[in-house]
Amino acid sequence: MTRTDSRGTSGARAAVVPVSDLLAAGFLFCRTRWGYRFRNRAALLRWQQRRLDKMLQGRGLHWRELPVIDKSIVLADFERYNSQGVSLAEALELAKASERSRDFRAELDGLTVGLSSGTSGRHGVFLLSSTERLLWAGTILARVLDSAALRQILSPWKPALRIAFLLRADSNLYNTVRSSRVAFDFYDLLEPLESHFEKLNSRQAELLIGPASVLRALAEAQLSGRLSLRPRKILSVAEELDESDAEFLERSFGVRPGQVYQATEGLLGFSCRLGTLHLNEQHVHFEQEWLDAERSRFVPIITDFTRSTQLMLRYRLDDVLRVAEHPCRCGNPALALAGVDGRADAVLVFDGVNIFPDVLRRAMALASTEFQDWSVAQSGKRLLIGLRAPSQEAEERVRDELTALFARYRLSVPKLEFGSWQAPAPGAKLRRIQLLAADARREGSTA
Ligand SMILES: [Zn+2]
């Protein structure tokens, strides 16, 4: 499928953003970048509490009395959880029509509608007003642009800043960033990645944005000489960025990738200049449902006090967040994370003991000189392992590492079954670790 725009280039669509919108985005940008200054974490949390109270008072609600909700509850009662009375059927119809036509500009009464890739079964749907879109754009630009990129945008005599966005779906969200100073190319992941190489090479984007698995594929192409990109900044979105992937990207492009932690539920975090992932606590309040006594991991329950179209009030996410051992030295008092462990069902359970994704990832990384990629799935008491470019030695090394891992947890080693690795479907999220059996449940302690 090819698509053409007014300039006749596939994928890159021109969109004119009104000056007023640009000014608004600029204002939000400045406020995000320079506006909020908190002396310490306590000051940030006090400010958050005031924002929460203010938002809820207007609705006659008390935060602690609100029930905790999740995706299935919101989808079952969609109209109640958005202020515009949009039904799930309406939202889904528009979002799916956009997905089919690959034209993502349609709106529903001025609202942007988007669909999240539903790897865990059901699609997530999001609704954003134009103001919320601007907030998103301003925030993301403020967080990801370095001062050189900023200078380039603000200097009319310099070429526009080029951003390459490799995603499954384009969105009005991204059009918001597009202007005469920001050239924004959307590369559709439902087309073969190789089909974009020529354009990627000729456009030479300064900012490369895509899911970790896609960036990894680009890095492989770069190393093999099929791509020759010189991005100044790389951003991983929509998937957790593995430490091994981050290192690989840095080796290939010479730039340390940053990451944005974003979901249908909102803009939840971004990495700072030191590479630490911080929660977006200037917009979202995070309650912690702790999973261990050491309080190193939690499932977040979020309340977004900047969004009013779709209400995110005490909304429980599927993710497991790992807290960084030390506060970040960058000065941002927002909570620093060691990582996001993707969907919670990627926590494997053997005899009631949780095996967290980062533990499993480390074991696989230790064994991984022999193979290029891997996947692990638990099915009851069996562990199904897929290795990309498998070999006898690779299987032996994986067997050794996993045996050591289970020994550390004083667990008997499950039955290890090796098979071949399967690349994720185009546009699908990469999930290396999956829990297939419905009978095994994560056993978390709630503090
Ligand atoms: Zn930091």
Brief sketch in words of this structure:
It is built from twelve helices and 20 strands.
Q: In CATH terms, what is the architecture of the largest domain?
A: 3-Layer(aba) Sandwich
| Corresponding CATH superfamily of the largest domain | ANL, N-terminal domain
Q: Proportion of β residues? A: 15-25%
CATH topology of the largest domain: Rossmann fold
Instruction: Name the ligand types.
Output: zinc ion
Characterize the main sheet: 12 strands, mixed
CATH top level of the largest domain is: Alpha Beta
User: Could you give the count of β-strands?
Assistant: 20
Rg is: 22 Å
Structural class: alpha/beta
Can you put this structure into words, describing what you see?
This protein has 447 residues and is of the alpha/beta class. Helices cover 31% and strands 23% of the residues. The strands form 4 sheets. Strands 3, 4, 5, 6, 7, 8, 9, 10, 11, 12, 13 and 14 form a 12-stranded mixed sheet that branches. The N terminus and C terminus are likely disordered. The structure holds zinc ion (ZN). Zinc ion binds next to loops.
